[in-house]
Specification:
alpha/beta; Rossmann fold; 5-stranded parallel beta sheet; two-stranded antiparallel ribbon; 16 helices; 9 strands; ATP binding; Asn_Synthetase
C-alpha cells in the first residue's frame, strides 16, 4: 500500500457517518444500502472525469497498468474512454503467475492494445530494483516484490512515450479486499479499514514521479474515499457457497459486466509471479550461507538494522547503494518514533508496520508505551 494519505476523521463527517466511542466509525442509519452503493458508483464516474482533468493528465498519452484484477479491470473497461486509455501493460515473470488470462480478457473487452511484458526474475531485479528502492525509500520485501512489477510496467510505458498511467490502487484497502480482515468482527473490521484509509500509500505514485509520469487511480480520489467510508463490513464482505469470504462486494455488484467481477483477490506478487522471490533458495546464488551470516551480523552491529533473510539482505544492499550511509531525504533515523528493527521513523503514530524495512508487530504501540 502506497498512496496519498487521506485523513479519515475529516472524511467521516463529509461521508455522512459518525464516530463512536474509541474512534470507530459508524454509519448513520438514514441511508439505504442501495443508496450508499449508488453514491459510490457516482463518485467512481466523477473520479474518472477528475483524473482526466488533472493538469498532468494527457488523454493522448495515457495507458493502464492491467493485472486483470477487479480494480484494474474496472479502470480499463469502464474508464478507458474518459481517461483516453489506448494501451494496457501486464507484467509476467513466471509460468505460475495468475494475471495473464484475466488481463487478456479485460484488454479485449476494453478494446485496448495489450502489451504483455515477460521478464525473468533475475533480469527484473537487475533492471528495476534500484528504481523501486529510490522511489519508495524502502527495502521491505513484500513491498519490493509488488513494486518491481509496477516499476517495470511504468518504465516500459515511459519508454514507449506514455506520460500518464491509470491504476486500480486503493480499492482493496477501502472495500475489504484483503482476506486477513474478512473474519474480523464488524467493529474491528471498520477500525482496520479506517486505519488503512488513513495510512495507505502506493509505490506507483513515487515510481511514476521518478519517470516523469502522472499516475492516478479513481479509488484514491477524495470523493470515492468518502463514499467507501460510508460502507460497513456487511456492505463489503460476503460469504460464498463454499464457506469462504469475498471482499469488494460493492464493486462486484456495481460493475457486474466487468470481466473480472468474480475474480478472487490475488496480491500483485502472485499475479505477476514475483512471489517466487520469497521462496527458500532463490537468492542462494547471490548470497551463500556464510556470507549471509557474516553480513547480517555486520549490518546489525554497524548499521543497527536487523536483516531477516537473504532476500532482505539483497534489497538492503540496493538501499545502501541508492542512499549512501543510509541517509534518506526526509526520513530521519532514531527520532521520536523509530522502528525497533531499522531505526527509521515510522510513518505515523499509529503505525504497526514499518514501510522502510517491513517489520510488523501488532503490539508495537503497546511495547513503545512501556
Amino acid at each position: 500500500m502506497r498512496s496519498p494519505r487521506v485523513p479519515v476523521v475529516g472524511l467521516a463527517v463529509a461521508a455522512g457517518i459518525g464516530l463512536a466511542a474509541g474512534g470507530v466509525l459508524v454509519i448513520w442509519r438514514g441511508w439505504s444500502r442501495k443508496g450508499r452503493l449508488q453514491r459510490l458508483r457516482e463518485r467512481v464516474d466523477t473520479a474518472f472525469r477528475s483524473i482526466a482533468a488533472l493538469p498532468g493528465w494527457s488523454c493522448a498519452d495515457a495507458c493502464v497498468l492491467l493485472s486483470g484484477g477487479l480494480d484494474s479491470a474496472i479502470v480499463a473497461e469502464v474508464g478507458a474512454q474518459v481517461l483516453g486509455l489506448r494501451t494496457a501493460f501486464t507484467v509476467v515473470c513466471t509460468e505460475d503467475a495468475t494475471d495473464l488470462p484475466f488481463a487478456v480478457a479485460s484488454s479485449i473487452a476494453a478494446g485496448l492494445q495489450h502489451v504483455v511484458l515477460r521478464i525473468p526474475l533475475q533480469e527484473l531485479l537487475r533492471r528495476q530494483l534500484p528504481l523501486v528502492v529510490r522511489a519508495t525509500q524502502s527495502f521491505d520485501p513484500m513491498s519490493v516484490r509488488n513494486d518491481l512489477a509496477i516499476a517495470h510496467a511504468l518504465s516500459e510505458a515511459a519508454a514507449r512515450g506514455f506520460r500518464c498511467a491509470a491504476t486500480g490502487d486503493g480499492a482493496d484497502e477501502l472495500l475489504g479486499g484483503y482476506s486477513f480482515t474478512h473474519r474480523l468482527p464488524p467493529g474491528r473490521w471498520a477500525y482496520s479499514r479506517n486505519r488503512m484509509a488513513q495510512e495507505m500509500t502506493f509505490g506507483s505514485t513515487g515510481i511514476g514521479q521518478q519517470l516523469g509520469m502522472c499516475v492516478a487511480s479513481p479509488f484514491t480520489q477524495a470523493g470515492v474515499v468518502k463514499a467507501c467510508l460510508a460502507l460497513s463490513k456487511d456492505d463489503c464482505v460476503r460469504e460464498l457457497p463454499d464457506g469462504s469470504l469475498q471482499g469488494k462486494v460493492p464493486l462486484r455488484e456495481l460493475f457486474p459486466r466487468v470481466t473480472s467481477a468474480g475474480r478472487r483477490k490475488d496480491p500483485i506478487e502472485v499475479g505477476c509471479g514475483t512471489t517466487a522471490l520469497s521462496r527458500p533458495g532463490f537468492f542462494d546464488e547471490l548470497v551463500d550461507d556464510s556470507t549471509f551470516a557474516v553480513e547480517a551480523a555486520f549490518v546489525l552491529e554497524q548499521h543497527g538494522v536487523e536483516i531477516r533473510d537473504k532476500e532482505h539482505l539483497v534489497y538492503y544492499r540496493a538501499f545502501r547503494e541508492v542512499f549512501p550511509n543510509g541517509l534518506v531525504p526526509g526520513k530521519p533515523r532514531h527520532g521520536s518514533d523509530p522502528c525497533p528493527k531499522c531505526g527509521y521513523e515510522l510513518s505515523s503514530k499509529t503505525q504497526i508496520f514499518c514501510v522502510t524495512c517491513g517489520h510488523y508487530d501488532p503490539q508495537m504501540r503497546a511495547h513503545k508505551r512501556k
